[in-house]
Amino acid sequence: MTPTTIETERLTMRPWRDADLEPFAALNADDEVMEHFPAPMTREESDALADRVRTHISENGWGLWAVEVKDTGEFIGFTGLSRPSFEAHFTPAVEVGWRLARNAWGHGYATEAARAALRYGFTVAKLDEIVSFTAATNTRSQAVMQRIGMVRNETEDFDHPRLEPGHRLSQHMLYRLTRERWFA
């Protein structure tokens, strides 16, 4: 499949390049960026994640796109669509997600890119629903989910199956958005 590139007002969401690996590893090693994940990533773990993401995009035409700022060409992280690889009450599903470098926070980039990913998911991929989830402590990502129109039903919150019960990050909030609601 031909990988898709998406343009927004300020961002380009595109297939990954080898040049993205170093700044991606830096953001994955940043304690503040990775605060709501079990641990920062090593360079090897970061490169392996990028390889999985690249493979998904090349096989499907969409996925977690590399995001760059149009004005500068700076790689700032990823945003896009993925399939959770664990079992939960809401899977199988397609998730909208993002991870941006700390210097890209506070500019509305996550919201802008996530809206573009939703548009792609509902209009091109013809998905009926897109979910998003994060640790209960990650209020910044929850705010993005709310800004892009996603809705949380507290009864659907869950303990992440890849974390030990009682882990500081195990409790996750689930947000949903249907195509019908998005078009409305």
Automatic annotation (TrEMBL):
<dbReference type="GO" id="GO:0016747">
    <property type="term" value="F:acyltransferase activity, transferring groups other than amino-acyl groups"/>
</dbReference>
<dbReference type="InterPro" id="IPR051531">
    <property type="entry name" value="N-acetyltransferase"/>
</dbReference>
<dbReference type="Pfam" id="PF13302">
    <property type="entry name" value="Acetyltransf_3"/>
</dbReference>
<protein>
    <recommendedName>
        <fullName>N-acetyltransferase domain-containing protein</fullName>
    </recommendedName>
</protein>
<dbReference type="InterPro" id="IPR016181">
    <property type="entry name" value="Acyl_CoA_acyltransferase"/>
</dbReference>
<dbReference type="InterPro" id="IPR000182">
    <property type="entry name" value="GNAT_dom"/>
</dbReference>
<feature type="domain" description="N-acetyltransferase">
    <location>
        <begin position="11"/>
        <end position="180"/>
    </location>
</feature>
